[in-house]
Amino acid sequence: NAGVTQTPKFRVLKTGQSMTLLCAQDMNHEYMYWYRQDPGMGLRLIHYSVGEGTTAKGEVPDGYNVSRLKKQNFLLGLESAAPSQTSVYFCASRSDGTEPQHFGDGTRLSIL
Amino acid sequence: EDKVVQSPLSLVVHEGDTVTLNCSYEVTNFRSLLWYKQEKKAPTFLFMLTSSGIEKKSGRLSSILDKKELFSILNITATQTGDSAVYLCAVYGSGGSNYKLTFGKGTLLTVNP
């Protein structure tokens, strides 16, 4: 029962470096989401996708890009990391309608 | 802009106590309200509520929705230390097929032995 898998689990970057976070789901879900979670701020939506080849901006998209080339994968990219992007990043997916979102275990990202 | 407000932000109780967590919301085109429990890692789904007045139950946890007053409560009876977690409330709204969840900031529940 893999569900939603995020890699890596932890990463430390220097300011200005780039990296890609990978989210993979094996439930054949159409919808996928990237959130960030910061103390006192709750979960905030960065970008989301309603199907293969589609992406859309969420609440806090600046500084991030995403791609959904395959239905099962949703990639989150940081082109030039900034300390303000230090956070825990969660990926989620769901089937359709208003079904619950299923979350991955998160990626803890620190930018120095 | 959709909004979800949870209260209290944190709560400390003793094992065996009963707790009530609150969630109020203002969203466009409300569809459903969800509760999640978050321990160290991923939020895990507890309940989804779409109809007013119908209680959902799972063991010692229960939840109910009031669509007229725009709020929901999550009750936990006979609390255990394993109930210690952040409880998140989230709402689907804003119409269309691209339903997005708006989350509250969560309630941190600490259950002491």
Describe the protein in words.
The complex is a heterodimer of chains A (about 110) and B (about 110). With about 110 residues, chain A is mostly beta strands. Chain A has no helices and eleven strands. In chain A, strands 2, 4, 5, 6, 9, 10 and 11 form a seven-stranded mixed β-sheet that branches. Chain B is mainly β and about 110 residues long. Helices cover about 0% and strands about 60% of the residues of chain B. Chain B is built from no helices and eleven strands. In chain B, the strands form two sheets. In chain B, strands 2, 4, 5, 9, 10 and 11 form a six-stranded mixed β-sheet that branches. A five-stranded antiparallel β-sheet of chain B has the order 1-3-8-7-6, with no helix packed on it. Chain B starts with a strand and ends with a strand. The model of chain B has no long low-confidence stretch (mean pLDDT about 90). At the A-B interface, strand 5 and strand 10 of A face strand 5, strand 9 and strand 10 of B.
Strand and helix map with partners:
The complex is a heterodimer of chains A (112) and B (113).
Chain A lengths: L3 E4 L2 E4 L5 E7 L5 E8 L3 E8 L6 E2 L6 E4 L5 E6 L8 E8 L7 E2 L3 E5 L1
Parallel strand pairs in A: 2-11
Antiparallel strand pairs in A: 1-3, 3-8, 4-5, 4-9, 5-6, 7-8, 9-10, 9-11
Chain B lengths: L2 E5 L2 E5 L4 E8 L5 E7 L4 E7 L6 E3 L2 E6 L4 E6 L8 E9 L6 E4 L3 E6 L1
Parallel strand pairs in B: 2-11
Antiparallel strand pairs in B: 1-3, 3-8, 4-5, 4-9, 6-7, 7-8, 9-10, 9-11
In short:
The complex is a heterodimer of chains A (112) and B (113). Chain A is mainly β and 112 residues long.
- The number of helical elements of chain B comes to 0
The average pLDDT of chain A is 93
Structural class of chain B: mainly beta
CA-to-CA gap between the ends of chain B?
Answer: 41 Å
Approximately how much helix is present in the residues of chain B?
A: under 10%
Shape, principal axes of CA atoms of chain A: globular
Overall shape of chain B: it is globular
- In N-to-C order, the SSE pattern of chain A is EEEEEEEEEEE
The fraction of residues in strands of chain B falls at: over 45%
Question: What low-confidence regions of chain A span 5 or more consecutive residues with pLDDT below 50?
Answer: none
Q: What is the β-strand count of chain A?
A: 11
